[in-house]
Design brief:
The chain is built from four helices and 28 strands. By secondary structure, it is mostly beta strands. The strands form seven sheets. It has a four-stranded antiparallel sheet, with no helix packed on it. The chain starts with 12 loop residues before the first strand and ends with a strand.
Length: 406
């Protein structure tokens, strides 16, 4: 059949609950929950098996810039109120938190999860935080606490510098201490930091930044306490960089901007032997300006962007070719998120009897019949939610579309 005759793709589900534009979405707890945050500071944790809210609270007094997860039961939120907060929200903590959706106008004092950490950070840049595990060897007491009390390992948080909007602050949690500072480059006019990524390899720390001028830079700290070196600088964009993401292979990263360019860049870890200037691997003119919320799927094969033109676009990470255009929202989209695909899910098949039966049944092409014999309806829903290749998109209309693609 000719592809021109196929009907346009439709979302599998639409989650309606926010009364303000959705700024961030993020899958947690092995794809059983989806976090969504809006311009009024509200956060919703959706149960993907039932498509209903599992927890709702107002995390910030103003708009939320970004959300993330730390371990299995800690949620990180970054708001325009100059606060970065860490909340404890495991499955067993959801019962004590409110369930009334923002669209139903819940009281501001609705029950919240336990607040574990609160950092005062710069949010004038509209730049969300970036995080990674702390690769430094930890003191024996911390290492023992991680093993015996099921505490998540320490992490590093990168945010724009408090005093210099072109600089970068790096904090460590749970100590809440500032671990490093990257000062703005005075030789290049970059403007504000607009997007950040961070990763570690043992004691080596890499920070990737996108700027208001369209520049992107890679900074590397080879040892703790050493000065950061700038190993890469390019300006493929003529407008501010809106989003970026490092590929799982950790050897390159993508950027998108207010212009129509999507670019792939090298991610150098050490200074080059030859004094040749590194350049972007590929710069693609998509002819669609205003693509943000760039996210790469956990297998590194595809990435997605949210467009101001209300379209969600899916690209090949290898060729940078456009693979799909998803249109359902009537107004601009701001954020995307991929569920971790099955091979990368935290829950192993052998550790989950329902998932194990689901996998065996799928191999026998008798999923429904076999699952009905070994699990409850709820277990079957959870197994399906965990194994679906979800792509979530949040929009200005306050709705979240869930797509099952690739």
């Amino acid at each position: 059949m000719s592809t021109e005759l196929l009907p346009p793709a439709q979302p599998s589900f639409v989650l309606r609950g926010h009364s303000a534009q959705v700024h961030a979405v993020h899958f947690i707890q092995g794809n059983t929950r989806l976090l969504s945050a809006d311009a009024e500071g509200w956060l919703v944790s959706w149960n993907l098996a039932s498509k209903r809210p599992a927890a709702v609270w107002r995390a910030h007094a103003t708009a939320v810039l970004g959300v993330g997860s730390w371990g299995q039961d800690r949620i990180i939120t970054h708001g325009r109120d100059n606060k970065l907060a860490v909340w404890q929200l495991g499955v067993h903590d959801e019962e004590a938190v409110g369930k009334t959706l923002p669209v139903d106008k819940p009281p501001i004092t609705t029950p919240q999860p336990w607040l574990l950490h609160m950092l005062t950070v710069n949010t004038l840049n509209f730049c969300s935080f970036a995080m990674c595990l702390d690769g430094m060897p930890q003191p024996y007491a911390i290492h023992t606490a991680i093993k015996t009390r099921n505490h998540p390992p320490p992490i590093l948080i990168a945010v724009p510098n408090t005093m210099d909007s072109g600089g970068i602050d790096i904090y460590q949690l749970p100590s809440e201490s500032r671990a490093a500072v990257i000062h703005a480059d005075r030789n290049i006019t970059t403007g504000m930091v607009m997007a950040l990524e961070i990763q570690t390899e043992s004691t080596k720390l890499q920070v990737v930044a996108g700027y208001e001028s369209g520049h992107t830079m890679v900074f590397v700290q080879s040892d703790p306490g050493a000065q950061f070196q700038r190993l890469y600088c390019a300006q493929p964009h003529s407008q501010p960089i809106l989003s970026m993401a490092i590929l799982p292979s950790q050897d390159c990263y993508m950027t998108s901007s207010a212009d129509a360019i999507v670019a792939k860049h090298p991610l150098p870890a050490v200074p080059g032997v030859w004094k040749t200037e590194l350049k972007p691997f590929k710069v693609v003119q998509t002819k669609h300006s205003g693509q943000q919320g760039l996210q790469v799927r956990s297998d590194g094969k595809i990435f997605a962007t949210a467009g101001w033109d209300a379209r969600v676009r899916v690209y090949s990470a290898k060729t940078m070719k456009e693979l799909a255009v998803l249109k359902w929202h009537k107004v601009g989209c701001y954020t995307t998120a991929f569920a971790e695909i099955e091979s990368c899910c935290p829950t192993k098949v052998e550790d989950d009897p329902v998932k194990q039966e689901y996998t065996e049944a799928r191999d026998d092409k008798s999923i429904v019949h076999h699952l009905s014999a070994v699990g409850t309806v709820q277990q079957r829903r959870e197994a399906k939610a965990q194994s679906t290749h979800w792509l979530a998109a949040g929009s200005k209309d306050g709705k979240i579309s869930l797509w099952n693609i690739y």
